[in-house]
Amino acid sequence: MSAPVNPPPPPRGISLYNRFRRWLILSVASSDRRSGSVASKFRLRRWQLIKEVLALRGTETVLDVGGTDKSWWFVDWGGPVTRCNLSKNAASKGLRVVGDGRSLPFRDRQFDVTFSNSVIEHINTVEGQTLFARELERTGRRFFLQTPNKWFPIEPHYLFPCFQFLPVPVQRWLHTHFHIGTFRKWDPFGTIRLMSRRELRRLFPTARILPERLGPFVKSWYVVSAEDGPEPGRWPEGKGL
Predict the structure, then answer these.
(1) Which residues lie closer than 8 Å to 83 by C-beta, 6 or more apart?
(2) In whole angstroms, what is the distance from residue 130 CA to residue 153 CA?
């Protein structure tokens, strides 16, 4: 029997790109709270703001729509946390419920706080995003939603300049031919629909919309509804982190 033949190494340019891609994911994009990435530091800062703007005591009942165990949210929380995902395997801690964010299996105002971080943009229709927004408001006495800004120059999932403005067939071709951003080329392709402030205002007409800034750019939007948070002037909509 002949010895197995190892595949030839990738061309130097591809090898360098793959190393750069791994570095970019680990140092910039990783949301794991243990990674020390730029994204994880943003999330820590975001978490401090969430606790203050919602006047959280740490014992409230929480619904985390789309949440996992890896991020900062509710790691040491003293109250009950329910994580709702399309798959039960998405989280291993707390009460896990399988459900669709567009039709949550909970009563009106069942939770003190409903929470969603970087989920709504993965619903690729206006109708679906509208349903998601209504359900987040319906099930919580207060809510917090974060989503990347459509007009930020780097698409945050693909880490590719202006990827969100490319025609969908071009996005699909890039996705299926290259390991790009946080995706491998064999990962299922699904259109990500980033949102602008104007679109969020239509979905949440009475909420506060706060910018999270990276230099001169608005990186993400926070949508906040709080019954007993800081006075309205404390977080004017023109100010960011």
Answers:
(1) 64, 67, 68, 90, 91, 93, 94, 95, 96, 97
(2) 25
Q: pLDDT digit string (tens) for 44-64?
A: 777 888 888 888 899 999 999
Render pLDDT for 89-103 as a digit per residue (tens, 0 to 9): 877 777 889 999 999
Q: What is the pLDDT of residue 40?
A: 66
Q: What is the pTM of this model?
A: 0.79
Question: Looking at residue 114, what DSSP letter applies?
Answer: E
Interatomic CA distance for residues 21 and 151, integer angstroms:
23
Residue 56 to residue 52: CA distance in whole angstroms: 7
Cβ contacts of 217 within 8 Å, gap of 6 or more: 149, 152, 153
Task: Give yes or no for a contact between 18 and 7, defined as CB atoms under 8 angstroms apart.
Answer: no
CA atoms within 13 A on the CB side of 76: 4
Task: Please report, for residues 51, 58, 106, 107, 164, the alpha-carbon distance to residue 129 in angstroms, rounded to integers and kept in the order given.
Answer: 25, 29, 18, 20, 17
154, 220 contact by CB (below 8 A): no
What are the counts of helices (DSSP H) followed by strands (DSSP E) for the chain? 5, 9
Question: How big is the CA angle at 222 (ends 31 and 56), to the nearest 5 degrees?
Answer: 85
User: Which token pair is 3?
Assistant: 């010895």
SS3 (DSSP) at 142: strand
